[in-house]
Amino acid sequence: ACWLIARLRGACFVCDWHNLGFTLAPRLRGLYRVLEHGSALLPRKHLAVTAVLGQWLCQNFDTGRVATAPDRPPTFFRPQQPREVLRAEMSALFGGIDADRALLVSSTSWTPDEDFDILFEALQLTTQRLFVVITGKGELRASFERKFKTLPASSVIVKCAWLSSSDYARLLAAADLGISLHASSSKLDLPMKVVDMRGAGLPVLALSYPAISELVQHGVNGLLFRDAPSLADAIHQALAPTFHGRRHAPFQERWHDMWAAAVKPLLLPHLPLGRRA
To answer: Residue 63 to residues 5, 40, 55, 142, 258: CA-CA distances in angstroms?
Structure first.
């Protein structure tokens, strides 16, 4: 439909790829891949959220050159000061956070593609006193809330919540660590939650897969893990004074900066002269 409308209007049809659809449909994977491959030949220009996704499209879907247009956080995800005030706000919001507990945060839609058993098992292995907030709604939330309640409250407290955008932004600014269990059906996309965490300057512990290194560099702005034991080790390492003592520099580039640098030059030749400013 988009291709037809673009043809009728003489417009440039651009496809912005954030994942591979056929990887989300295991029962119809072969058919979906053929259809998606055919559809990929219709746009005149292509954007991809990661460089590795762009390379895959070029090599496997014959798209030609694909420009990388990575996600960037909105401006309200940013470091906020003083963090002691933010921490007090979060303590009031969640019913009390002891001063000696590290504040960890994750977000999820509670679907099977994020394995929170990894976090549950890692929290049983860790020796730190932790307060963990997991935001989001979804079908698996209730079952995991029951599991998390079996953890010893003397060492780990887990709260599941649904927050407003402003409260979530303040939570990220107050937290000590962010955790991402996003596995990626294609292994080629990136989790938006990590983009937001990076916007707040929050160090991130992320499940390792091929594309994640475009966003989280191990030992630089976070740590990568493979399973529950390595996540427990990453929590211990990230909360050590040599690592935790420094908040990492947030993204300087925001969405409008990325658009101006990566997308505008691609589209500019196809815009009417009066709209090229």
So the answer is: 20, 6, 10, 43, 22
Kindly report the average pLDDT of the chain as a whole number.
Answer: 90
How do residues 36-52 score in pLDDT, each as one tens digit? 999 999 999 999 999 99
- Pair 133, 171: CB distance under 8 Å: yes
pLDDT at 182 over 60: yes
**CA pair distance 79, 84, nearest whole angstrom:** 13
Gyration radius (Cα) of the chain, Å: 21
Cα 23 to chain centroid distance, Å, stands at: 18
pLDDT beyond 90 at 171: yes
Structure tokens that stand for 61 in this block: 């879907």
